[in-house]
Write a sequence for this structure.
């Protein structure tokens, strides 16, 4: 692991910590999600029945999740920061606020969810290629219809883009810079 990847992991851990502190201060308990037996996760803390809520906490992936299959299928090496972002933690999606508005950071909830995420990444990149646009990898949704946040695979820059369109507004120079700028929304 290089220094950039290690720094991004630290920034993600700090954001998780700030999110949990804010959540506990406001709700006087750890975050909860609705339990779904079809989507179990190592993040879940305690047992529940379908429809009930369960407390959860991010869980480091050891070893990190592997992207070799998607890279082979695409004949493309994914940017190391996107692999670190998606491959380091199982976590529920986290609401946040940037200077431009509210968003939701996407994370794999489980190994099964990671596989679904990879399928969506494949579809997104194939769509970009078909449209002859630069390859991006989405990692967040915004409160604006059809606007997602993506990383430009070749540069690591963070951009806003409408689904199916070229990125239209640069948000940050790197994933680390972007995550550092966020405030948790609980």
């Amino acid at each position: 692991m290089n220094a950039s990847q290690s720094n991004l992991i630290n920034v993600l851990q700090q954001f998780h910590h700030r999110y949990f502190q804010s959540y506990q201060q406001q709700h006087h308990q750890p975050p909860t999600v609705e339990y779904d037996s079809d989507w179990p996760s190592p993040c879940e803390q305690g047992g529940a029945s379908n429809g009930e809520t369960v407390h959860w906490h991010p869980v480091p992936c050891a070893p990190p999740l592997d992207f070799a299959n998607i890279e082979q299928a695409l004949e493309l090496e994914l940017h190391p920061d996107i692999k670190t972002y998606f491959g380091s933690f199982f976590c529920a999606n986290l609401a946040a606020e940037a200077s431009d508005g509210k968003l939701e950071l996407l994370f794999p909830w489980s190994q099964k969810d990671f596989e679904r995420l990879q399928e969506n990444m494949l579809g997104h990149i194939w769509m970009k290629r078909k449209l002859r646009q630069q390859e991006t990898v989405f990692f967040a949704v915004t409160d604006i219809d059809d606007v997602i946040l993506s990383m430009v695979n070749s540069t690591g820059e963070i951009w806003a883009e409408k689904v199916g369109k070229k990125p239209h507004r640069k948000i940050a120079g790197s994933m680390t810079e972007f995550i550092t700028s966020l405030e948790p929304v609980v």
User: Anything to note?
Assistant: The mean pLDDT is 95. Residues 42 and 173 are 32 Å apart (CA to CA). The chain has one domain: 3-184.
